[in-house]
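User: Hi! I have a protein structure encoded as tokens and I'd like to know what sequence might fold into it. I'm fairly new to this, so please keep things simple.
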């Protein structure tokens, strides 16, 4: 879009900056000026329309002049039209025409204004008008058409003029008199209808092109046919020509979305359509109509209004006010702007201001309601007019604090690092679903499981209640490619037990309980001790987490179907079961096609989390040396290591610090049903160095206890 430098100057009471400087100011504050070109005694500003798409008030010289006035602290000259037609009463010797307007689509046309002007003489426009139109890139046609284009460029409101005589008369008895006698004022009646086009209806435009219309296109019609495509292009039927004596002058407002869609459908982008699709202010129609009447009477002295002033209005005026605290302005801009200056900028931009001690009440003018709705919009107005160059860039002085670590995630990461880096595990991720056939192989009862309404596949129809079933499938698949591996998973299981979490705030329904567990698998071809391997890894994991645990033989009635009946223990801490360690039941392994022995563990993550949250107490390093003795015994293979460990500690009391196995053997030279077990016993006192005799007495008691209570035989 092009703007005239001299035309902008005509609105202001202060001299404009030089064109190049003005272009720089405008680009910085409001629009992007793409170029300045000298044309005679004037300059043309080429402005990128994209940069002002959301500002329909800037599509005319008056609106842009108002912005410039605010920036350079100038005042706008009084531009009110001399003619303000607000009454149906008027005096005119040409009072013979009657105009009716029927707006059938009020949502698509919230305002339609019109008036008849008689005794017009169509001729070329005066030189000053032609020059302004040409410098803005518009071709001059005649004085009537040029006035409508002039008002559009000045105020941003498209207008149109129709030849009154070419509009269909709705009084069939009327005939134009052949004498100089003035006709009866009630005889000739013209009607304008704002309606949707009929499907397949056609119109020939002013340019001579024919357009096929559809039922979504809004048209301006007379009582018979369309005479214009509303808000886009005028029709040939009611065109102004050299013979025109009476005109209907139109100023209307149209719904922007319909205009944009219609223009796209018809492939017809016009200056009018471009403006209407930006959501023009409906109040602008009255100002534009008055301005056009003033110009017509100025360049055609004999012209007179010759009808009632038509104003079909269906929109409602809404007062919009925003409270703007001064403290908020300075906080957002990052600079202390004086109250008087902030209020002055908004006033110069056309906002109504009420100034209070600590805030402003800002009333939004009708032409800015489309883009001003919140406090921050007003702050942007103040900042850009104040000048972005006047606001120094400065890093905010804010104390940076790292986000607090989620202790649960921190523990989870620690456990993963220990399992992966220390014990060579690999993490796996499985679906939270299992299948009935899968559970049948595990000999598990799935009646108490939560079913899925829309399962992703036939073998994943219910929610898991343990991580083990899917880990067993992982084991089967990995054994096809690897001779040994260790895998683990951290995930949730789902039970029908009610949790503390509601489905939503409105209902008293609760989600199923979703506990988090850690489970792992050790598998190695030809390894006969997977149970001990996985048990050892888990024991070391808890040791590095500073959590004391014991392994206790699992109760037979609480052993799951997939667990080995004689190689299963409970993981216990503070007399509470927190998990299990087991070897996969051979029968279950066979049903899955697993030929190797597999060690498995599963532990509650939340129990670990609660135990890890306890503070570690400081224990000083003992000053006195320890004494280590080794024992090797043959004992019934059914005797658990835990029983041996508990007996040694009970007999030795506080002097026995550690009881650690280092060798287990069954086979050649060992009687059937027996096993050879070797272990260290560490003795240490808090207050003295132990003597050999003292340690020997304790060791003899332990040996005696092993022989009498557990039937052990000491190997020498």
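Assistant: Happy to help. Inverse folding works backwards from shape to sequence: for each of the 716 positions I chose a residue that suits the local structure. Here it is:
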């Amino acid at each position: 879009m092009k703007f005239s430098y001299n035309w902008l100057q005509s609105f202001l009471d202060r001299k404009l900056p030089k064109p190049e400087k003005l272009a720089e100011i405008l680009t910085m504050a409001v629009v992007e000026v793409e170029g300045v070109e000298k044309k005679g005694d004037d300059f043309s500003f080429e402005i990128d329309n994209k940069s002002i798409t959301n500002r329909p008030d800037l599509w005319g010289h008056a609106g842009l002049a108002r912005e410039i006035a605010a920036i350079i602290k100038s005042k706008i000259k009084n531009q009110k039209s001399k003619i303000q037609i607000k009454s149906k009463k008027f005096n005119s010797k040409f009072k013979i025409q009657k105009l009716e307007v029927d707006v059938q689509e009020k949502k698509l046309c919230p305002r339609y204004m019109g008036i008849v002007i008689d005794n017009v003489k169509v001729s070329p426009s005066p030189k000053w008008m032609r020059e302004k139109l040409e410098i803005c890139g518009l071709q001059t046609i005649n004085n009537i058409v040029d006035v409508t284009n002039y008002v559009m460029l000045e105020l941003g409101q498209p207008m149109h003029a129709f030849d009154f005589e070419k509009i269909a008369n709705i009084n069939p008895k009327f005939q134009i008199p052949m004498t100089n006698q003035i006709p009866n004022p009630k005889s000739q009646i013209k009607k304008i209808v704002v309606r949707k086009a009929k499907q397949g209806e056609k119109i020939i435009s002013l340019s001579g092109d024919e357009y096929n219309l559809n039922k979504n296109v809004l048209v301006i019609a007379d009582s018979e046919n369309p005479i214009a495509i509303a808000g886009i292009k005028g029709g040939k039927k009611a065109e102004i020509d050299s013979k025109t004596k009476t005109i209907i002058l139109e100023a209307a407002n149209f719904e922007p979305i319909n205009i944009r869609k219609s223009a796209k459908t018809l492939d017809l982008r016009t200056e009018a359509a471009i403006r209407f699709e930006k959501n023009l202010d409906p109040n602008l129609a009255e100002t534009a109509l008055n301005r056009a009447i003033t110009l017509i009477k100025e360049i055609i002295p004999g012209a007179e209004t010759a009808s009632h002033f038509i104003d079909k209005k269906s929109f409602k005026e809404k007062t919009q006010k925003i409270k703007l605290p001064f403290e908020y302005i300075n906080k957002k801009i990052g600079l202390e702007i004086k109250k008087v200056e902030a209020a002055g900028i908004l006033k110069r931009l056309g906002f109504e201001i009420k100034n209070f001690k600590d805030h402003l009440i800002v009333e939004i003018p009708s032409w800015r309601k489309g883009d001003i709705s919140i406090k921050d919009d007003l702050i942007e107005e103040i900042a850009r007019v104040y000048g972005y160059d006047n606001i120094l860039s400065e890093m905010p002085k804010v104390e940076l604090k790292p986000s607090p670590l989620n202790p649960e995630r921190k523990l989870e990461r620690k456990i993963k690092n220990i399992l992966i880096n220390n014990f060579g595990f690999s993490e796996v991720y499985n679906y939270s679903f299992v299948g009935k056939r899968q559970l049948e192989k595990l000999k598990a009862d799935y009646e108490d499981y939560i079913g899925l309404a829309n399962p992703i596949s036939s073998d994943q129809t219910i929610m898991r209640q343990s991580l083990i079933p899917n880990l067993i499938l992982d084991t089967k698949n990995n054994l096809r490619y690897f001779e040994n591996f260790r895998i683990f998973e951290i995930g949730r299981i789902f039970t029908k037990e009610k949790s503390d979490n509601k489905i939503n705030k409105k209902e008293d329904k609760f989600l199923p309980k979703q506990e988090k567990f850690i489970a792992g698998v050790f598998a190695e071809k030809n390894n006969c001790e997977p149970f001990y391997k996985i048990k050892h890894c888990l024991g070391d994991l808890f040791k590095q987490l500073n959590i004391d645990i014991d392994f206790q033989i699992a109760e037979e009635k609480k052993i799951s179907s997939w667990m080995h009946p004689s190689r299963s223990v409970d993981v216990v801490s503070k007399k509470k079961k927190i998990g299990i360690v087991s070897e996969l039941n051979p029968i279950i392994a066979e049903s899955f096609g697993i030929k190797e022995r597999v060690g498995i563990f599963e532990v509650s993550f939340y129990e670990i989390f609660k135990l890890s949250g306890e503070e570690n107490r400081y224990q000083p390093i003992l000053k006195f040396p320890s004494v280590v003795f080794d024992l090797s015994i043959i004992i019934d293979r059914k005797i658990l290591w835990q029983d041996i460990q508990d007996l040694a500690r009970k007999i030795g009391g506080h002097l026995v610090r550690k009881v650690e196995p280092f060798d287990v053997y069954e086979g050649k030279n060992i009687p059937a049903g027996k096993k050879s077990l070797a272990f260290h016993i560490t003795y240490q006192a808090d207050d003295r160095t132990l003597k050999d005799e003292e340690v020997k007495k304790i060791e003899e008691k332990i040996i005696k206890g092993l022989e009498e209570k557990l039937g052990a035989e000491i190997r020498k």
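A useful reference point when you look it over: Residues 82-94, 174-186 have pLDDT under 50 and may be disordered. Feel free to ask if any position seems puzzling.
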